[in-house]
Amino acid sequence: MSEEKTSLFRSEPMALTQLYIPLEIAPQTIAELGELGLMQFNDLNPKVNEFQRTFVNEIKRLNDLERKLRFLISQADKAAVTLQPVDPLTPYARTRSQLEIDQLDTQLGELEARIEQMNTSHVSLNKRFLELTELRHVLRETAVFFQIAESRADEIAVGGNTREDSGLLANQQRESMDPGASGGHTINIGFVAGVIPRAKMGIFERILFRALRGNLFMNHAEIQELIIDPVSDETVTKNVFIVFAHGKELLNKIKKISESMGATLYPVDEHPDKRRESALEVMARIEDLRHVLDNTKAARRAELSRVAEHLNHWSVIIEKEKAIHHQMNKMSYDVNRKALISEGWCPKASIGAIQYSLRAVTERTGTTIPPLLNELPTTRTPPTSQRVNKITNAFQIIVDAYGVAKYGEVNPGLFTIITFPFLFAVMFGDFGHGILVTIFAIWVVTNEKTLAKKKWGEMWVILFGGRYIILLMGIFSIFTGLVYNDMFSQSMTLMSSEYTFQYHNDSGKWIGSKTSTYGFGVDPAWQTSDNFLIFANSYKMKMSIIIGVLHMAFGMCLQVFNHLHFRKPMYIILEFVPQILFFMSLFGYLVFLIFFKWLTYYENTSEAPGLLNTLIYMVLSPGSIAMPLFPGQGPLQVFLVFIAFISIPWMLLGKPLYELQEHKRTVGAGYAPTSHGTEQAAMLAEQGEQAHEESQEDDHGGHGGKFEFSDVMMHQMIHTIEFTLSGISNTASYLRLWALSLAHAQLSDVLWEMVLLPALTSANAFAIVIGFYMWFTMTVSILICMEGMSAFLHALRLHWVEFQSKFYGGTGTQFLPFSFQAIFEDQEE
Fold first, then answer.
1. Residues 175, 236: contact at Cβ < 8 Å?
2. What's the pTM?
3. Which residue ranges traverse the bilayer (predicted)?
4. Angle subtended by helix axes 413-428 and 532-565, to nearest 10
5. What angle do CA 317, 321, 327 make, to 5 degrees?
6. Each residue of 108-136: b (16+ CB within 10 Å) or e?
7. Residue 345 host element (H or E)
8. How does pLDDT run across 223-265, given as a tens digit for each residue?
């Protein structure tokens, strides 16, 4: 098979292939194709539910294995166990046999059970440890409470019965009662002690005071030690509290309120000796429990460390197995032949590589029945595949964001490589700023292997992906900066000026006279002139119109390649010719006038005609010219206006009438009428009714329709009106090149004059350092980052709307091959 030529001018030639795979080597074959990443499998079971497909049980099992792995990886992260990184494309991560998957399932199940058992034990031990820790704090703090409360037992007993406002929130008692009270001296006083979250302490106090009408005495203290919640593993802050009250009913009410507020109550003996014994016992039990907890953590960490080097490997294996079985579910299962039958798209140039991979699978597995690959003839529209590299990929992404090219359509990405950074540089043109951008881009490009691994956020991913766009934008900005003779808003005297100046007494000004043409770019003498802004406006405005007209005319010319490729040569006459005649007779003539005026010398510039008025009155009043540029201009303009007006009905009627004629010819040849009209007439004549039906089903989902001349006419009318009106709006849209270039230059001049220049003229070293720092910071942040982003978006709009709309449909479908590399890259994002 001869190797197909590929280029970025249009999409790669694609082939529809049919693949017969013996069931016993199906996973290995698909895995090999996944490593190759050149085959897009079509779904041959579109009407079958996902849960009714052949390999749904295998996918469920793999999902369960993936769940177990996620659990183990999360446990390893909690235990601070470092996982060994793995490259998903290493040979270690090859596809596994069913026996190996069974063994992995058993191993993961046993490991999950052991870790869950350890976790259960750890949680129960932590709960017990938490209870003992809280009890230790309760015993320690309540000992202080009891010592103070014993000396004031009479006051508490009386205060609770005689004064309603002598409770917890009375100001005088809050200041005098620091901790505690006791029920030891009065028989009818009891107490409740426990621990409550610190955030609920204030609410708890108010609820108790209102519920018991102040008949209580309460004290609390903060626990300074950090307490870990055994369920959530989060640090919580708690307080120890003790509440004294009269009678069992009040005590029961206190207990219910405490439990409803999330407090934990602990039994505390009122005798000091017993409390001391309890405290010593609790301390001993805490030490024993801490030792058991440490051993449990060590055992769990050792278990996870033992498999840490395999977890990422297993994860890659399972992800690949899932992807393989998902592709197998798209295939047709031949029960009698024990084989899978698949269809898929691949580049014609890659068929040899795919066949080589299939032979490698056959040799590696030792099977006697190899997989077979056949190329199928078809009239279906293939997906679009653009062969790109790391340099052209970012430009192709810009084009695909507008729309994926139809198969065989001219790809704007090839021209965008030059035109996009150039239009950006026209708006951003500054020699100094371009150097800064280029230095950054060179640093990223030269260190791309190291920087590709950095995780510095989404913005960094965008900048790194567009590093070659930034590099070209910087280089083109250096070029346009030299053309503008602009470096940080200052002119550069690369060559001596071609202007000589003489002082005029009548005007009191130095007037420059041009002796010859400056070698390259703008003469530096203009920078200090009073009329520099007027000159720059006129120069950049006309330059923007010239660039815009040439850019759009080039886009129209690319239609010719599309019409020839899709075998529609008549569309060149019926669509391209009237469009280019209309556009060039008006706006091409405007470009001609700009160059003619530039080449004409005027002693008095006020005698020079205004080109905008000339263009307006060319249409409103053909033939009458107030200030002609050259002899015969009036008749020429009448002829051009006539050509423009003739082009409108040409665009409007030519294509619909041609399609009507072709439709009648198709019906007369015996074919059924279609909604395609003439676009498929040639195909029908060559391939017959069967090809026609296949194309109908693929393009329209099986729903054909009658040819309606009124619909075609309406569509063409909309297209004609849109083109004629957009000719003016799109040309005016390129004036953004002038506007943004002017704004960039003026803002740069403001920063120089208002920030850096005063610091330089101050002759103060500290002021110079501070001024330079502020100037450089504002230059990078405002002029390079913000203005650069603005220029980028405007260049993007000029390509999408003004350029690509002239020839590019963008109605294709993206070629998405089955590729392990793409799967894992998507997961990382």
1. no
2. 0.78
3. 422-445, 465-485, 545-564, 576-599, 611-630, 636-654, 765-786
4. 170
5. 150
6. beebbeebeebeeebeebbebbbbbbbbb
7. strand 339-347
8. 888 777 777 777 888 888 888 888 888 888 888 999 888 888 9
